[in-house]
Amino acid sequence: MCDGSSDRPFFPHRHLLGIEGLSPDEITVLLDRSENYVEQNRRIDKKKSLLRGRTIINLFFEHSTRTRTSFELAGKRLGGDVINMSLSTSSIKKGETLIDTAMTLNAMHPDVLVVRHQSSGAVKLLSEKVNCAVINAGDGSHEHPTQALLDALTIRRRRGTLQGLQVAICGDITHSRVARSNIHLLLAMGARVRLIAPATLIPPGIEHLGAEVFHEMAAGLKNCDIVMMLRLQQERMHGGFFPSIREYFTHFGLDYPKLANAKSDALIMHPGPMNRGVEIDAEVADDFGRSVIREQVEMGVAVRMACLEILTENLDRPELRTN
Question: How many CB atoms lie under 10 A from the CB of residue 277?
Answer without folding.
Answer: 14
